[in-house]
Design brief:
The chain is an alpha/beta fold. It has one domain (4-267): Rossmann fold, CATH 3.40.50. It contains nine helices and nine strands. The radius of gyration is 19 Å and the shape is globular.
Length: 275
């Protein structure tokens, strides 16, 4: 699906790799214990015995989650839009002497994979980079096994596009409409580039709002059952109002979901599922 959205995201992420942005740096100091703690499988309620389990890191290149899963014995595949990000995954695999399969592509098109290919689809922050989340969920439902898990981290729909720069002296002002697919653009946070300045070389992130009702209802309609919902927030007592640290305690920027694929429940109601 090489439309304008694809090309924008590809260009931006290749530039982020070149700038060595935070999300492009492979984790090269892991062992099995650190990998398990990093992924947080216990608190997420995802079964921890990953030996031989097939995991797809969806739009999750960069050599972080893929390396952690591989160190825990999983059979890991990474799909990412950026060839540079995938190169980081291959570098991490070589560093740890593990096997990781890499596939360049768009999260909206998983045709490179057969039906019911994965026990776990691990989807870090990237859903807001495409306008219609339903396309992604349909693809995930096709490639995940019955009983398999879908981990999704995304922008908190209520605060998507809001940052600490919206501080007005009393609070953080919501100005953008709460509408599916509404485009938003804002500067990267300083902590994304903590090693060197990048100037104006990298285009700002362009994201699309996904309402909570569309996310939840679309996944239910695809045959997923919600197992966990967590609000990811900061905990920085005494943080200065108007700072990123203060903002994350007032308006949790991210949500984590764990879903399990049970299409039989829908089929019993006369709705055909995948798999």
């Amino acid at each position: 699906m090489r439309d304008e959205v694809y090309h924008y995201n590809e260009e931006r992420w290749e530039a982020l790799v070149e700038a060595d942005a935070l999300f492009t740096r492979p984790m090269l100091d892991l062992d099995a214990e650190k990998a398990r703690a990093y992924l947080g499988l216990d608190k997420l309620g995802i079964p921890g015995d990953l030996a031989g389990r097939k995991v797809l890191c969806l739009a999750g290149g960069g050599g972080q989650q893929s390396a952690a899963f591989a160190l825990l014995g999983a059979d890991v595949t990474v799909l990412d839009i950026s060839s540079g990000q995938l190169e980081r995954d291959r570098a991490a695999a070589e560093h740890y002497s593990v096997g990781i399969r890499t596939v360049q592509g768009d999260m909206r098109d998983l045709s490179a994979f057969e039906d019911s290919s994965f026990d776990l689809v691990w989807h870090p922050y990237s859903l807001t980079f495409v306008p219609d989340s339903r396309i992604v969920f349909r693809e995930v439902a096709r490639v995940v096994e019955r009983g398999g898990y879908y981990y999704l981290m995304c922008a908190n729909p209520f605060f998507s596009g809001l940052t600490h720069d919206s501080w007005n002296g009393e609070g953080y002002t919501l100005k953008q409409p709460y509408t599916d697919e509404a485009a938003t653009c804002y500067p990267d946070q300083d902590w994304v580039y903590d090693r060197k300045p990048v100037g104006d070389r990298i285009r700002e992130p362009r994201e699309y709002r996904q309402t909570l009702s569309r996310i939840v209802n679309s996944l239910i309609q695809e045959g997923f059952m919600l197992k966990l919902l967590s609000e990811v927030r900061g905990d920085y007592p005494g943080a200065e109002p108007g700072s990123w640290a203060h903002f994350t305690g007032v308006a949790p920027p991210w949500l984590e979901f764990v879903w399990q694929y049970h299409p039989a429940a829908l089929e019993g109601e006369g709705v055909q599922g995948h798999g």
